[in-house]
Amino acid sequence: MTEDLQHNYYYSVSTEHRGGVGISPREHGPVFSKTELCLRTLCDHGVDINATLDHSSRHTALHLAVRYKVPPAVPILASYGADVNAESSCGMTPLHMASASLRKDMVSSLIRLGADVNAIIPLTGNTPLHMATTAAAVQPDKGPETSGVGCISELLEGGADPGVANRAGRTPLQEACCFGEEGLVDALLSHGGTADIDRGTEASEGCLFLFLDGCPANVWRAGGLLSKLLCLSSPPRLAARDRLGRPPAALAGPRHAAQRERLLALSQQPRSLRDLCKRSVYLSHGRGRREALRDILPHAIFDFVFDRWDAPGGVSFDDAAASVCQS
Question: Which sections of the protein are ANK repeats (predicted)?
Answer without folding.
Answer: 57-89, 90-119, 124-167, 168-200
